[in-house]
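Subject: complex prediction, re-run

Hi both,

The earlier run crashed halfway through, so I resubmitted it with identical inputs.
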Amino acid sequence: MSNDDNSHNKNKPLNEKPLIAGNKTVKDVTDDISSLVERVPGLKWLMMIGGAKALLLFYLCVLTAIIGIGMGLMGVNHPVGWGTDIVTFVFWVGIGHAGTLISAVLYLFRQKWRTSIARSAEAMTVFAVATAGIFPIIHTGRPWLAFWLFPYPNQRGPLWVNFRSPLIWDVFAISTYATVSIVFWYVGMVPDFATLRDRAKRDSKKISNAIFGALSLGWRGSTRDWSHYEMTYLILAALSTPLVLSVHSIVSFDFAVAQLPGWHTTIFPPYFVAGAIFSGFAMVVTLMTLIRIAVPVFKDYITLDHMELMNKIIMTTGMLVGYAYASEFFIAWYSGSQYEGYAFINRAFGPYWWSYWTMVSCNVLIPQIFWIKKMRRCIPVMFVVSIFVNIGMWFERYVITVTSLHRDFLPANWGLFDMTFYDFGALVGSFGMFFTLFLLYIQAIPAVSIAEVKPVLNTGKEGGH
Amino acid sequence: MDKPTSDNSNKYWLSLDQWRQDPQFLELANKEFQSSPLSEESQNGWGRRDFLKLMGASLALGSFGCTRKPVNIVPYVNRPQGLVPGVSNFYASTFHMAGEVLGLVVRTREGRPIKNEGNEFFPAVGEALSVRGQAQLLSVYDPDRLAAPIQNLLNEKRSNRDTIASSWEIIDEEMTTQLKKGGAFVLSGANPSETSRKVISDFVSKFGGEHFQWSPLSYERFRKSFSALGSDRKTLPRFRISKANFILSIATDFLGVEYGSLQNSVEWGEARDVSKREPVKLMQAESLMSLTGTNADSRVQLKPSEYLSFLCAVISKMNSSSSYAKQASNYAGVKALSSGVLEMAETAAKELKENVGKSIVMGFGLQAKTADYDEIQKAVHFLNAQLDNDGTTIDYSQAPFASFLADESSMETLIEKMNAGAVKTLIIHESNPAYTYSDQNKFRKALTKVSKVIYTGDRNDETGRVSHFVAPDDHALEKWNEYESLEGVYSIGQPTLSPLYKTRAFEQSLLKWLGTEDQWFDKIKETWKSRFTSNTMGFSSFDEFWVGLLQKGVMDLSKFKDSEKPRRAFAGNFNAEFKKSSGDELVVYQTAAFGEGNLTNVSWLQELPDPVTKIVWDNYASVSMGYAEKHSITEGDVIELKVGEGKNSETVKLPVHVQPGQEENTIGVAVGFGRYGAGKVCDDVGKNVYPLVNGTTYSGIAVSVDKTIEKIVLANCQGHYSMEGRQIVAEASYSEFKKKESAGIHKHKIFSLWSKHKYTKEKWAMSVDLSKCTGCSACVVACQSENNIPVVGKKHVLNGREMHWIRIDRYYSGDPKAPRVLHQPVMCQHCDNAPCETVCPVLATVHSDEGTNDMVYNRCVGTRYCANNCPYKVRRFNWFNYSKVESPLNMALNPEVTVRSRGVMEKCTFCIHKIRGERSDANIEKRKLKDGDVKTACQMTCPTKAIVFGDMNNKDSAVSKKFEEQRTYELLEEINVVPSVRYMTKIWNTDEQIAVSHGGGGHGEEKHGDGEHHEPSGHKAKEHPVEGEAH
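This time it finished cleanly. Structure:
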């Protein structure tokens, strides 16, 4: 069924290239995608979820230790008050960005190729934000009081939060983002749930019928339903679009609003957004290559053309990020501030030079390979590159957080930061959480939007069907 | 030995001891299965099993730590008189440690002392208090103190076989029979109490013994050296630094560790008050970098074997015609000096000649205790006599230091007596010879000849373990005593709490063993009665006088007010022979924290950064940068130091610290570490280097060095030396300051969109005069004691988690091999535009209307954003639950300051509890707060008065006046956080050009940092110096 090289499309104009390969009929699509949810999980999936679950359990142990014994288990110290918790938090929030971009922005721009990857990208967003959300909580000294960051009516005066603090803006930005992403994701799934409900009814599966029946909110597929659905979806897409820009801008304010040399820069909002999209797309590529391996039928839905387009975006945003790196250096020099100047020289040539050059190589140099079309379309290459980009983007946040803090204004305070077992544990373990959620999603929810893929099938355009 | 007879009830017996029902055996047998069989592994009485048991229990408890158990508190039914719950009581008392005597005011709350403060009535020092004076408080609550007497069962080698509980009854009984044998000797450290000395002398004379006062680091040789000036006074002179213009110090750390260092620091503060006078110029000739060396305007790096040569070189340039001067000038060592050193000698001679009667030459310090020590003293006395300094800047006119005749050589005599069998009973009091005496084999061997050894220490430490009984003396804060620190200045040691344990005052024990019913307290009163004449200090009756004494704590009865004749004639012959030394030389030094090795179990002191190296929790071999390069050793490499040859050689392995400014071929090691049995805090911290000492020679000891492959990471609180060309400590020379008072300060043009904050009430502010600050670190301990600051241990210091609210940043500038050293105390700067306040999401750190930046611990969630955004990095985070301490250490906590729990940020509060307390007092008295009412803990203890605190809204306050001076600048002014703490330029009295014209390219001066300093070329254009435009 699968057709990786798309050789029969070679002589056609680009816009007529089929978005879904394998000459699917509408029924094929429904069967292909629904069957994945309906069948008993395969051995491959079980092995993968087994691994992810083990990692998740490990993560829970690490979190318990950190909360039970103290933040001091991690490497953070004086002067490096924020460590891998914040690095990993920003990393995961960044990952989430591609989801919203693909589902909302590309939807508004009528980029039809988004349909087959939108669902998974959105799922990735939701899970990444959920994973990210843990970190600000465990990074506080008293996580059991972290709810004080929410401005809720209370009996302490009432005592409100400090609306001037970027961390409060963060709370709003992230919670809004998480809410909108979940709603958007869910609304998009309603027609598919209805399909699954109908199929369950047909096969007399009572439990599935009940669950999907509830989830599909009484969807009947009438024109009225569709009309409302399309309008809701459009409005939600429009609501999500500014969030793509706002969330990471606000996350960047955590740094940019501080007066620390290396943090205090106006370029951070666009730089963070570009970086977020960059890392988000890299994560989508990583996940999609894995899905294509785990579920071969998806090769028809997530074709090499999709992957190539994403790789182009990766290369573009990679260069944007590279531009930001260069411009930071220029401004550090141009500002004439000796602290700023030192902070940047120290980034590149100080004790953490390795993290800086890891970041530059992974984010700027390695994606350049995508100038070559063959590489853009080569699954192993893009998988490796996407992993590198994710490593690079984690290090970007590491560079910003750690190298700025470890040497600031007064040299007497300078110190070093070393990751401890718990830093690694929380970082690695968070992948356990993310992958567990993602694998459960693949098994429980149609991983490609049935309803959205059907309109972009090339049925009828070509002979044969 | 009795024969076994049938009427003995022991049917079966294990040993003849058991059959005889030997009490010692029974004790042992009873204990046999109680203590851990593995307890020998752990010297501090913690067997592995005990530890595991406790750890298991604490883990179990720890995991349920979230539940708070209700604790019932019960108020007094009948309130004790004079005690109001919640109100501090202050008692005047006295601090004494190894010859250092200082006046104390002990603040107590509900019957427990919580803070040691200086006594304002104490002459020459006033409110200032030393590091150790502050830290002594914690030692009373030391959990490792003995709760009752113990008995050590010694084996044939006289080392400890087992320790069993004992009681005062047993000891008293034992002593009654023992003393009948006669030959009862007392070995004590310096004993400044006349009454105590009298009781001891009564005791030893009754039982046919002698009293030896011995201290490894005493000044007896120095005192005796005054015979060259025809003097045999029993006292030591005071150095009137404030009267001097030039000081030449030969390896004497007179601001840091030597006798009178606190008094010297007080005078130093006056002498370096550049607003009032030309600061005294200090030339320090030394091998290591001492605290005094860091304050010196010029330093000469000498090997210990060159100290005398240098002095002779100075003498040779003095153009003196005396025969001594000629002999000294011909000393062969002078020729062996390098030209650079000779030049310095010429400069010194020139300065000395210009300051006749206004200079001081000194060389009495521990580091000067070379083989030539006595000759060095002679040369020093010659110079001082020649220069008319004797009697003017070095005098006995106002309360000289009482010397307590603790002789460094008296131990030799005692050992001889012990070996001769004359000593039947030896009582060791306030001395720890089994640790501090250099020739342990000799001492321990001699000790086996003594049939009973009683030790009065409060723990079973080195000396305890070679003694039969440890009969713990009361802690100084628990017992009555009286002291003479300065001649004719007597102070009273008042108990501030009743003894926590079953201890007994040492003198009370002696009185008991004397067979009298006399009370120790009555003896003290008697002494005072003998001092009291009908109208002493204006008191008409003794009872009134006594009450007055207890209130003031100190009485200056010295009759030397203005009666001392100046100038003594020098009479001495130079008779040193020059021996060229080519190898490495060892210098043994003492630290301000531990001295000869006292108070080592006080965690505050272990975690007090060394004023120079900033290293905590270790001693180390300090080597020069050149030495490290030559032998390719780096910080933390362990080297083996070997002193002596063959059988008598001693080796010690120590990690290396590379010290800028140290003489190339000397190696410095500190005593006071490597304790054994002294407590959980200090056991196994560092190594004992007393064995390396050669008799009474502490300096210039020939040493051979072997590298090892080991490495010990030293916990250094400040890893980076350089200021990176930033304006952090502004410095200038005095001549530059004279030309322009703001020399060295680069002011920035500050532009802000926002108007400034308005403070209508008080606006609290602090001024720190860097010219006065010596870096002594007394403020650090004072703050720790006042504000319940936890100690975290070496492991966490290595991770940068020390908790001090005030730290002293130390920078080096100039050539790293001969740097200038700058000290800068940094505490929360209480910024008007505080960057921490805006970023806290939960408003846990907020601005008060009095300009302070307050922490609301209860509200803190612990995001640490405030710490990240603090440009001074003064905020400290409770990574773990540090406040949980072993009982009874918790009794040292100040109830006026919140104890912080885990996950909470903390920092300097400007002692806000004191502000509130004083305000409340003022309100009750219906008056306004006066300038000087509120004194922060750091300010109070600062001997040089470098710290001034007050209300800057009050134009007449001391701090406002300081702020008006041109020397005042704000740290990191350019980021416009507007700190309430302002610094004053460090002024050096030197001809060098120091003040860098910021923006004129002076930034590149410090090249020894990481070599990464980057100077943006846009810099000059952007930042024009704008004079006097501090916002």
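The radius of gyration of chain B is 30 Å.

- K.
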